[in-house]
Amino acid sequence: MRILPILACVTLCLQISPLSGVRFISNTSFVSTAGEDAYLGCVVEDPLEDLSQISWQRSADLNFVVYRPDRGPIPVNELGKRVRFERKGQWDGSIILQNVSPSDEGTYICIFTIFPSGPFHRLVRLMVNVKPEITVFTEDPIEEGETESRIATCRAENGKPAAKISWRTPFPTLGSMESSSMHEDLTITIESQLRAIPARSMHRQEVQCVVEHLSLPQPEVVSSKLTVQYPPSVVVIKIDTPTKLAFQCEADAYPPVDRYDWKRENEVLPDGAAVTEAQLEFSVITPDLSGLYYCRASTPNATATGVLYLQIGISTNYMALFTLAVILLLSVIIILVFFHAKVRELSVTNS
Fold first, then answer.
1. Model pTM?
2. Which of 14, 75, 112, 317 lies in the 20 to 30 Å Cα band around 271?
3. Rounded Cα gap, residues 128 and 4, in angstroms
4. R_g (Cα) of the chain, nearest Å
């Protein structure tokens, strides 16, 4: 059997067309992801001849690995050291290229040298996808308002090919704005800005960035919570207690309210009134407590005021006593008038 030199690369190998009796039966295009192993297929039907060697090249003048039936795989350079032959049969020249990177993308040449027909080659294309690095961040803080603004940004950085970005939100938005940039290594960064009119109802709501890419088995979802800054809205609530009249000042705001102040319209708080943080209490209930009271809720950025109108009437018990006293007084007056009339009547009779 004729043996060709191990490292020889005959330029003629790229010029000879395969004979009709030798047929490659593997694909010519393969895809892998950076950091993973790539499969490059190269299989021929049994030509009923002797196999001298299988060689792989990245260009027309340099082998990087050779396989010989009597010696096995022989790496020629650093690239060849990353190669493992599949060898699922004598006429299987497929290889596994380990830990591929974007620089491994390109066209490879698989050459079967058989005796006595000679060398036959096939071009094999490898595409290397690069998984993007995904980050999501929200604007901090987002201020409540009536104008459109950016509320969140999603980036799929250094991907190849470009990633596709979409959004999932629990509230209506105004869509997104997208930009892209290509780097020297041909990877691409995609940035998507989610836009909406910020409202307090969005505070602590979660938005999801959905990234689709050829290197991902399924879309990758990255979540982030919004922080919306909004001024206080004040509500005054009555608290029922058995011994006191009390009112609680409650305010919804972000940042949270850090100070509450109670005051009476144009006056200081009356005697018997006590303030404990957001609560106003009256230990003695009298009609002179009636009037307007204001609760001011303050955050580091804003202030809001709630209004309480308090009307204290006469107690039912006092009214009953007053009514009884009036009835008694009227009874006494009637008795006195009647007695006085009798006395006058007796005086007239005696006369």
1. 0.71
2. 317
3. 33
4. 46
Rounded average pLDDT over 170-185: 95
Residues 6+ apart with CB under 8 A from 231: 144, 253, 299, 301, 302, 303, 304
Q: 84 and 72 in contact (C-beta within 8 Å)?
A: no
The pLDDT of residue 349 is above 80 = no
Give the chain as a 3 state SS string. Answer: CCCCCCCCCCHHHHCCCCCCCCCECCCCEEEEECCCCEEECCEECCCCCEEEEEEEEEECCEEEEEEECCCEEEECCCCHHHEEECCCCCCECCEEECCCCHHHCEEEEEEEEEECCEEEEEEEEEEEEECCEEEEEECCCEECCCCCEEEEEEEEEEEECCCEEEEECCCCCCCEEEEEEECCCCCEEEEEEEEECCCHHHCCCEEEEEEECCCCCCCEEEEEECCEEEEEEEEEEEEECCCCEEEEEEEEEECCCCEEEEEECCECCCCCEEEECCEEEECCCCHHHCEEEEEEEECCCCEEEEEEEECCCCCHHHHHHHHHHHHHHHHHHHHHHHHHHHHHHHHHHHC
Cα 173 to Cα 46: distance, rounded to the nearest angstrom: 62
Closest to 26 in 3D by CA, of 47, 15, 40: 40
Q: How many residues does the chain have?
A: 351
**pLDDT at position 191 over 60:** yes
Condensed to tens digits (0 to 9), the pLDDT of residues 39-49 reads 999 999 998 89
Residues 6+ apart with CB under 8 A from 233: 251, 252, 253, 304
> What tokens does 161 get?
């090919």
Structure tokens at 243: 């011994």
- For the record, the structure tokens of 304 come out as 């809001």
Establish whether the linkage from the previous residue to 141 is cis, with ω within 30° of 0. Answer: yes
* Non-local CB neighbours of 346 within 8 Å, separated by 6+ positions: none
**In angstroms, rounded to a whole number, what is the distance separating the alpha carbons of residues 39 and 108?**
12
